[in-house]
Design brief:
Blueprint: H1 3-7, H2 9-23, H3 38-51
Length: 88
């Protein structure tokens, strides 16, 4: 945040409030996330967005996996693979 924008905080806040009042509709609502803690804000936004998607648990079908093909001449790659960090 630059110093000039900091000094005009309430001007920006009024403009935001007017924009919300004019464009916040029942079928297209605005939501505000407290964002002093960016990590928590992002996780809260993700959880909020997911909560807005209709979801029904389904019972998974039982499946029988076919036999896997033989390894033959396949070798693991020599270059390192980049894995997504397993956080959960």
């Amino acid at each position: 945040m630059d110093l000039k924008s900091y000094s005009r905080w309430y001007d920006y806040s009024r403009a935001r409030d007017e924009m919300f009042a004019a464009t916040d509709l029942e079928f297209a609502p605005w939501y505000v996330a407290r964002s002093d803690d960016k990590r928590r804000a992002r996780l809260n936004i993700i959880a909020h967005l997911l909560s807005k998607i209709p979801y029904e648990r389904t019972k998974p079908e039982k499946i029988k996996l076919p036999e896997r093909q033989k390894r033959r001449a396949y070798r693991e790659p020599e270059h390192p693979l980049r894995y997504v960090q397993e956080r959960f």
